[in-house]
Amino acid sequence: MSIVIRPATPTDCGIILRFVRELAEYEREPDAVEASEEMLAAALFATPPAAEALIAEQRGEPIGFALFFHNFSTWTGKRGIYLEDLYVTPAARGSGAGRALLVHLAGLALDRGCARFEWSVLDWNTPAIDFYRSMGATGMEEWTVQRVTGDALVRLAGRA
Fold this sequence. Notes:
It is a single chain. By secondary structure, the protein is α+β, with helices and mostly antiparallel strands. It has five helices and five strands. The protein has helices at residues 13-26, 37-44, 97-111, 126-134, 150-156, and strands at 3-7, 52-58, 61-73, 78-88, 116-119. The protein is globular, with a radius of gyration of 16 Å. A five-stranded mixed β-sheet has the order 1-2-3-4-5.
């Protein structure tokens, strides 16, 4: 059965949130999702949008999504695409939906003149790592993600 990739619409915010929650569950952080449908709608459909989303469908039913935004590399002098979330429902894994979403995003990156297409993956998620490597991705082993959030963000901003 063929996979259709399409841009998300405002009516997709409920399914996107459901997929985000399922992804959080898979990533062992079921209580970490703070987003709401309204927050997603405001971010994805603002002018300009904070991020964009794609929906993967099979037989007209949503089976996965990708949420991404542009970043910028001073080294290349060009934008890139950063994939924040990629999720395919357990029942649809192996259907080609994940591959179709990545192929679509790679095409968008080329069409938009981007120098890079990148994302992060949890180090214990070997099925995803193996899948990404099979598609030509390379790990940036020498780089680690750094994050400041919550009270630490408030303190860093000098507002505590």
